[in-house]
Amino acid sequence: MKIAVSGKGGVGKTTLSASLVNYFVRRGDGVFAVDADPDASLGITLGIDPEVISKQVPLIELHEVIKEKNAGGGGLVDLNPDTRGILDQYSIKRGGVSFLRMGGVKQGGSACYCKENSFLQSLLNSLLLDQDEVVIMDMSAGIEHLTRGTSQGVDLMLVVTEPTLTSVKTSLLVEKLAGELNIKSLYFVGNKIRDAEEVDFLKDSLSENKLIGSLPFDGRVMSMARGKKHEDELGQILCKEIDSIMGRLLGGEGITEEKS
Questions:
Q1: Which of 26, 213, 227, 236 is within CB 3.0–4.6 Å of 245 for a Cys-Cys bond?
Q2: CATH code assigned at 224
């Protein structure tokens, strides 16, 4: 299963991504957790030591490795560089999770970033098309890392949205971009939901039958975002809701037992 998580900045993409990672780890799956948003903090949310993360160079900034993999050298660019072994070598291992920081796609300007972007796209192809492990990608709102080639490996895109007009607008834009990349399976997940009225607002504002579930507003999640610790880890705080969402998507495979 390869899942891309997108949405407007601040809506809770990273919270959902981390919860999904925890979901699959509880199932016993190996997971690649990919921070594809330069402004996100997926690693910290997963409980990885910030000092360890700070020493992890984003993949697109592995300049010497990129230079080595660019077989043509000079002005020639290998559009499909050999990236075998890179994913394992430059990921942080924690339990059943391999954590990777992609870094931002480089835009044109004073310097050419063809080599870096080709390297990154080759790594994404390997992640999405060749790996047996589950892949959870915490995307930027523009899903800029995905191309028509790499999007073929995405099984599902989840777009996180708050019950506000601006958040819904961004979510519908992401849906449009995903459609242009031929991503067939896309659903919305409401976040920071306080009451049924907010759920109804999302149902009325989004594409018909595309709201797959909602996560309630929870002060513990907000407190964790401020760096405060709780006995319950993030995966436990939202596990019931996440299991419900994934149960619908995977045909009833939720793993949390209901307590009467």
A1: 213
A2: 3.40.50.300
